Amino acid sequence: MIEQIKSPRFIVLSLLVLCAAATRALPLFIPHMWNFTAIGALAIFAGSQFDNKRFAFLIPLAAMALADICIGNGFSVTAYLGFISMVACGVYIRKNTSVTNVATASIVGSIVFFLITNFALLYSPALYPHNLTGVATSYLMGLPFLRNMLIGDAFYGLALFGGFHLIKKQYPSLAIN
After folding, report:
1. CA atoms of 87 and 69, how far apart (whole Å)
2. Over the stretch 114-143, which tens digit does the pLDDT of each residue have?
3. Under a CB-based contact definition with an 8 Å cutoff, are residues 50 and 58 in contact?
4. Judging by beta carbons within 10 Å of its beta carbon (0-12, 13-18, 19+), is residue 92 exposed, middle or buried?
5. Helix 39-49 crosses helix 99-117 at what angle (to 10 degrees)?
6. pTM for the whole structure
7. For 71-83, b where at least 16 C-beta lie within 10 A, e where not — what string?
């Protein structure tokens, strides 16, 4: 396992994930749309690219936690559960990371993230009543955030997957052994 951590592939992937996680701090410096970050894309990317499944989950979770600490964001169990589901989507496409599979994993992952994080019955104190109307209202109010996440995942997914593909062309040793 130590040899795996020292590998150039692991180091490059970890640096890409950390850079992508840093986009969580963008609102502090650059005005942009809410939820237009690389978080979803980095989850799918990490899940599909790290050889070791433990690292596929651990590295992006650690990067997200570090970003949350740096920006003073609280820890949200639902956000991390949604994030874990997105990493799982990446793990699912690991054997075939085609453009279609990455796009599908991004869409499915974003929707699952949305469904988990906007389920109004999970919150206490509640922003919405803990009944069917509250759940429906929570999902309705979250739709603009879902749209922005889908756009952000497409943009950053292209940057991460495309960028890593170009890096691997330049440095073939970074390809999976």
Report:
1. 20
2. 999 888 666 656 678 888 888 888 899 999
3. no
4. middle
5. 130
6. 0.88
7. eeeeeeeebbebb
